Target: Homoserine dehydrogenase
Amino acid sequence: MIKIGLLGFGTVAGSFYDLVEENREGLEKITGQKIEFKKILVRNIGKYNRCKNLLTINKEDIFEDREINLIVEATGEVDRLASPIEEALKRGVNVISANKALISKYLERLILTSKKSKASLKFEGAVGGAIPILSNIEKLKAAGGVKKVIGVLNGTSNFILSQIENGLSFEKALELAKEKGYAEADPSADIDGIDTMRKINITSSLLFDKFFKEEEIETIGIRKINEDRIKDALKSGKTIKLIGYGDKNGKIYVRPEELEKNSILGSLKGGENAIVFFTENAGEIVIKGMGAGGRETAYSLVSDLIDIYGK
Amino acid sequence: MIKIGLLGFGTVAGSFYDLVEENREGLEKITGQKIEFKKILVRNIGKYNRCKNLLTINKEDIFEDREINLIVEATGEVDRLASPIEEALKRGVNVISANKALISKYLERLILTSKKSKASLKFEGAVGGAIPILSNIEKLKAAGGVKKVIGVLNGTSNFILSQIENGLSFEKALELAKEKGYAEADPSADIDGIDTMRKINITSSLLFDKFFKEEEIETIGIRKINEDRIKDALKSGKTIKLIGYGDKNGKIYVRPEELEKNSILGSLKGGENAIVFFTENAGEIVIKGMGAGGRETAYSLVSDLIDIYGK
Ligand SMILES: NC(=O)c1ccc[n+]([C@@H]2O[C@H](COP(=O)([O-])OP(=O)(O)OC[C@H]3O[C@@H](n4cnc5c(N)ncnc54)[C@H](OP(=O)(O)O)[C@@H]3O)[C@@H](O)[C@H]2O)c1
Ligand SMILES: NC(=O)c1ccc[n+]([C@@H]2O[C@H](COP(=O)([O-])OP(=O)(O)OC[C@H]3O[C@@H](n4cnc5c(N)ncnc54)[C@H](OP(=O)(O)O)[C@@H]3O)[C@@H](O)[C@H]2O)c1
Model:
């Protein structure tokens, strides 16, 4: 029996709960096991009006419950959850996370721990929402590997940049992004490139078997982008996108770059994300889809569950 | 130990042999097993100047060798290999094939046999060369499924259609496709839509858990395409592509359709293929890459091997 301790019950974790309930029959068939939500960690129980009997605000209720054999995490909390998660992995508890901030910062420790204990650690949802990026990496590597990877991985930046192309100032575009729900109240992780940095960090580490320190990744966001540069690009059929880049020589960075408007990365709109793998043997492989969203990201958490327990 | 009987030693099978040799160390690590090529089936031994001691023209040398536990098939032969492959699956021998003609025609029999015997049957290379299409289907289904799928899956047709856009007649475009190696001496499987039909048949069967009869799939190729239709489309920013379509109501067909020129399917060039999954919960997921080529397709055969034997 898969006994889940769910950390968080917001946009992503709540959708994960829904997806599992909606597809319980198929999932139990694929995994060959019953699935139970044992407990759910939140900070403010009053906010929720379902699963009342499962909710807790004490993380010990989950981390000290020896029956829980799978932790699914989608909180956004970073430092206070890293050690308990590491301890859980040590004990052999499997972990699925959508939390790019936590995974990017603690990647090396968590991966080494999971390798030692043979517990599974999966985080497809942390990179590119619904897009199956990480699950394709092992195969890309085994048949000769990848030379470099380039991704457009932040929907907020996409949206703002295309609004500037439409004539808005950066400030107006950011305001509109907030109104439309693309940007959060504090948009710095998006517009300063941090979000993209975390995603390209996670992807490159797995692809190139090398751990990077976040603070050593050159990260330039779009906050100070020159609006004229965008308009000039447009005139010659180009467009500026915030890209994440990584290669097998260990080069890794995030910055706005000029792309052909009608290339696959250049033509992305709004919340669309895409990543291009430049492989040694299979040409370019591109994967594109919705980079965020509750159900979209929850879909990747379910994929991880199948990767771990699928027969 | 993985003991391989290789059927065929041409463009794809030869590249598979090379990829395994080049990446042997990594593959043996991932699978936890040594890998050996035990025998290789061809028709004309004189053509080959390597692996002489492994070559055979008698299929019994492979199918009656009880040490062989994996058959990797890339011949193009259809009816004469279907039954021996089915018998091998029955005995528990795993099978990987790149042969879309054989897989499409015998899909139901082969899948049912492999389910019964619990032997693995994989054929990623049969649909879309290097593109990881089939390996993503199980997950797409488990998290709510797919409403419909549309693919541009034939590079020869892509090439010919874009040459007609450039002003060539169909005949001239076909000639050029042959010159450039896009089209074979007998191009009918490509230009009559048969190749696309096989790929969308295989994909839809897996996605929608329903077997189709090849002859019941409405298949219109590009042989009789109206050149004016293509030029008219172009004038309004559209383009004609040969698409394969399947949906969860069991609708399935192949025909030339008008697409936006700057959409992801509309902008494909030459040998590029792409497929769009319209999912229930994760929006549209697009996968794009090289649809054919020896090393590209062999890459998918290696992926299948990892899927079967990866720890
Ligand atoms: N939303 C997306 O589209 C998306 C896409 C990819 C990845 N992600 C990642 O998924 C994670 C969750 O995102 P979200 O959009 O679902 O956020 P959210 O809607 O704000 O939900 C966060 C949930 O976690 C709980 N939580 C937060 N900090 C906690 C803590 N220290 N201890 C206990 N519970 C805590 C919250 O509980 P209270 O409300 O009770 O405080 C809430 O239930 C983040 O790491 C995010 O980066 C999100
Ligand atoms: N080429 C691609 O880009 C590509 C992409 C995706 C899928 N595929 C599929 O992969 C398969 C192989 O394609 P390919 O391009 O590699 O063809 P190929 O270069 O012509 O090679 C075919 C090989 O199979 C052998 N063979 C053919 N029929 C045989 C039979 N009845 N008995 C024994 N050996 C036989 C041939 O041996 P002899 O030469 O000695 O006759 C040759 O070694 C086909 O099913 C094709 O549809 C190809």
